[in-house]
Design a protein that fits this description.
7-stranded parallel beta sheet, disordered N terminus, 5-stranded mixed beta sheet, Dihydrodipicolinate Reductase, domain 2, alpha/beta, Rossmann fold
């Protein structure tokens, strides 16, 4: 028998995760997914100043068992990565805190103003940063498929995008719809801001060959649906992504955060973080 101790592979360190917007719809589902991840643990939960649950255990605040993490109004201790689904203003503040503490940052908050996005991406000089309109693996695959379809079909097919979300969503079109339209416009060599048409009303005239229509539906509890039409003469091709649960996004966010926690400082794409593209 060979002598000596058997070598053991060093266990990977547990990834410490902070969640901003922890009591929101997405924050709650991210916490639920994290609870089932053996290699990750919640170390910080953040909510807006004035939130009634500040200072309470976040698990109890959400109606469950205590998890040993109290709600705070900012990131006060280093985490390996922070996942943000809050607001544009809060995301900008979290970026500054992450840069100071050396915490990687994943921002899934939509409707960011250019100045907020610039400030957040500026943190990429010091930490790994990913800003995305959608953390779902399926939605990001849809972006790729739609761009490929646009390249093949070209200008002979009209492009229209229809998205649907729950009645409480504030921004329209959705960030995902905008990303989808931008990818298609890029594949077609079009200036999206020049060619976009957000809904139509009244005598707007015949459709121009290069415009890209954007249509938003707000109803009930729809989690998220996006369809891009490529309509030609005699046929129509549709590419659709439907999310039936927010857990789809929560799982994508946790997956991307795990990759980002070990990435180098800089601006990273969600495709790379999800494993859809090589880093």
């Amino acid at each position: 028998m060979a002598s000596g101790k058997a070598s053991k592979a060093a266990a990977s360190p547990v990834i410490g995760v902070a969640v901003s917007g922890a009591c929101g719809k997405m924050g709650e589902r991210i916490l639920a997914v994290l609870a089932g991840e053996g290699g990750m643990r919640l170390v910080s939960a953040i909510e807006r100043a004035g939130h009634p649950a500040i200072g309470r255990d976040v698990g109890e605040a959400l109606g469950g068992r205590p998890v040993g993490v109290k709600l705070e109004t900012g990131l006060t201790r280093k985490a390996d990565v922070l996942i943000d689904f809050s607001s544009a203003e809060a995301a900008e503040a979290r970026a500054a805190e992450c840069a100071k503490l050396g915490t990687a940052l994943l921002v899934g908050t939509t409707a960011l103003k250019p100045e907020s996005r610039k400030a957040i991406e500026g943190a990429g000089k010091r930490i790994p940063v990913c800003v995305t309109s959608n953390v779902s693996l399926g939605a990001n695959l849809m972006f790729r498929l739609a761009a490929e379809a646009a390249k093949v079909l070209g200008d002979a097919y009209d492009v229209e995008i229809v998205e649907a979300h729950h009645r409480l969503k504030k921004d329209a079109p959705s960030g995902t719809a905008l990303t989808l339209a931008q990818r298609v416009a890029g594949a077609l060599g079009r200036d999206f801001e020049k060619e976009r048409r957000d809904g139509r009303r009244g005598d707007v005239g015949a459709r121009t060959p290069t415009e890209i229509g954007m249509h938003a539906v707000r109803a009930g509890d729809v989690v998220g649906e996006h369809t891009v039409w490529f309509a030609g003469l005699g046929e129509r091709i549709e590419i659709t992504h439907r999310a039936s649960t927010r857990d789809t996004f929560a799982r994508g966010a946790v997956r991307a955060a795990a990759w980002l926690a070990r990435a180098k400082p800089g601006i990273h794409t969600i495709e790379v973080a999800l494993g859809l593209s090589p880093g």
